[in-house]
Amino acid sequence: MTSKCCFKIGFILGLVFVCTNAQEKVFNVLSYGAKADGRTDDSKALLNGWRDACQWNGNGTLLIPSGEYMVNGAIFSGPCNGSAKTFEIKGVIKAPTDPNIFCKLESWISFQYIHFLDIKGHGTFDGQGACAWGKHPCATPLPYTLGLYFINNLIVHDIHSNNSKGVHVNVYKCINAKFRHVQIAAPDNSPNTDGIHIGYSKNIHIADSNIGTGDDCIAIIDGSQNINITGITCGPGHGISIGSLGKVPTQEVVKDIQVKSCTFINTQNGVRIKTWASSIAGMATNITFDDITIINASNPIIIDQHYCPERNCSDSTQESCVQIKDVTFNNIRGSSNSKAAITLNCSASHPCKGIMLNDINLEYHAPDAPAISTCANANGKATGKELPPSCLK
Known about the structure:
This protein is mainly β. The chain has 2 helices and 27 strands. It has helices at 43-55, 99-102, and strands at 2-11, 14-28, 37-41, 59-64, 68-70, 74-77, 85-89, 92-94, 107-120, 124-126, 144-162, 169-172, 175-185, 196-199, 202-212, 218-220, 225-234, 240-245, 254-265, 269-276, 282-297, 299-307, 322-336, 340-345, 352-363, 372-376, 378-387. Strand 1 and strand 2 (14-28) form a beta hairpin. It is elongated and about 65 Å long. This is Polygalacturonase.
């Protein structure tokens, strides 16, 4: 029917309502021949439904009702006609387990070149990753579950992503995106299963979500600017990380990052910034970690500018050329399961500048207690409570 329709887009500083006098229409994938039996490849039905929703000169919704949908891979592409488009998933979309299929994919499900997109519905993307973890079936990295590329004005909310083969959600060159009430889960031993991976994107807000994986809950890499993360429960996983930075040419600065009111439970790291030991020039600046609870993390607070996880990477005598500056750690409390609760291991050629530690209370319960902090090439100051005592000068 014809009505005045408002599409709500989440921004960091509020909400924008885009209103049009347009027709709303739902495109149900069952009408396009989807079987929803969990075995038949329903990719074509989803793609045909999206084609019509995208071409519809109004607010078009692609609806995936309850049921199980096997999808061997799908790219939902724009630009689209009309105004907002919605991808509403109420059922379970299952990824292929045959490496002859999934090894050919960079992203299993991807959306690209779309303005005003809403992904919602309380449904589940099931990556069926156990068929691939640790088995090296592909010559290339394992596919992302959900790739979001070149999208302006995006909301992703009330969805689940389980057992991705690789990264769960990859955000690349998106502007104005809001994630909320997102549930991401994979076992702690699943490799490279980052929850949300952000690169070359601006104005991204992630809020009120639970993320537990075998890698970073949230990873923020080159070119990420104005990223706000609030109300995240992370664990298991490697914590919330900025980096790895400095490995590839033509990287852009990382700046204006805020991580606030988050909880980390049994994670490898809490809040982390990492750059490659030998790197090209770069910068990460204006970063705040505030009001953080950490329970039993191995590295609650860590800056590591000698990151080198690969066997063939350069030795520790080479220094990072990424400048880290103006980083604040405020009101961070909880417990460490290692003696070094704070590690600031910065580059000798590009020392960290403007590091602020304020009201840090990290306990360590072990025979060799109390906890300590370690610093190398880190400049700044500490105020308020200092547990462990600060090593900053």
